[in-house]
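User: Hey, quick favor. My workstation is busy. Could you predict this chain's structure for me?
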Amino acid sequence: MWRRTYLLLLLVRIYLALSPSYIHPDENFQGPEIIAGQIFGYPNLKTWEFTSSRPVRSVFPLWPVYGLPMLVLQWVWTETGKEAVAPRLVYYALRLLMFILSFVLEDWAIHELVHSPRERRIAVVLVASSYVTWTYQTHTFSNAVETLVVLWSIVMIQRILDNKHRSSLLSSALLGSLVAFGVCNRITIPAFLLPPGLYLLPHFLRKPFSLLILGTTFILTSILGIGVDTIFYHPSSPEPLFQILRSEPTITPLNSLLYNTSTSNLSLHGLHPPYQHLIASLPLLLGPALLLFWYIRKPSLSVISALSATVLLSLIPHQEPRFLLPAVPLILSSVRLPSSGALKRYWFISWIIFNTILGVLMGIYHQGGVVPAQLWLGQQRQHDSGLSEVFWWRTYSPPVWLLGGKKLLTVDLMGMKAEEMMDRVTGATEGYKGGDPTSVGLVAPKSSVDLDAWIEKTKSVMVFEQLWTTGNHLNLDDLDFEADGIVGTLERVVGRRGLVIWKVSRIPEA
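Assistant: No problem, here it is.
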């Protein structure tokens, strides 16, 4: 029975992995956006993490995770005689890759960490039935990569502890490389690994050569990461790499640590109280599984890692649920189900409802029209659509790399006030040369009623032509319970869900 359940959950996971929902801009702009520009020459947008004088984002982890599959795709495509790899193919190939990494590495790690066959079956099914596994882990998040690094680092720690009579040199070497890779990926990884790692101190006292091997692989991997980052951030330097490494190395984890220890910097991204993770992040990620804290089997490395990270990351003023992503499989693999039959049944019902709702929301509808819209725009010939500039309003920032080689100016108006947006779009239709009227694109959610009023008000001056639309788009940033009430907000945001690409033209004066 559990095998059939697991296979069914795998189908759900792969379906949502290939559904183009858009959970957070970081899933594109901190990974594929950068590497696709490097490999395919696609126009791309580098965010502040990559353009500041002290860059805080390392490209070293991006190359093995995203760069290698892109290079393979490029090689295969070249061998077939075709000119360029389509962004659509790259996008879905990366999603499929993240599914495979989740299916193979995450589930394998659970098998390693849970020794009892019966408890292992429960742990694997719980992790596989979590919407976090279906969505966050199958998107191109650095947090998803961090989850895999944390799990396998704990596996290596456990292997070293279990093998008391040997030095466990291979496990020590892998642990050193994993930690260095993880620090380059996300500076928060020590919060998950430092407390479990303290259990290795007695082993290192008995087997100091293990510590030497661990330190050596950590240093070598760190040097490799610093070298890759230094080359990336000094592309036109005439000096040899060795000289740059000596005089001006780019150490992105250090820059990230210094940046995130400044409250003034974090205030730009939003400050949260220290209990934010406890009252908001964990309930959002785990839902009814929080009740199973009463049924934790015993203190283990997994539990220690999850709890220590929650405490340590709560000390940082800026907190987001995805920062605790590695804690989800760690906790779900460490709990037991209620012993009471009725209680167990009610818990299962609540678990299924919770993950179904969040899975559909985050896996299908959350900003689900942004990627398909950008892919559609990238496939259109300019003389067919008549667009050379597209304004995006009240959506997440569109990934520019999805346009491929198309020269289409993307203007992100974000949450700009409706009046200002109207002025920008209206001004753009006045033309670029000689005052001749021109057409521009406007991408906006259907739930924005301000756009309805504008269309009706200016219909004698402006012409709106709907070029493309989808209903699989929910804009949760458009919620306004204070102004519209609960029913009115749900009718507008959910009842009018969808995204539209408009062609906006000015009627020529007679």
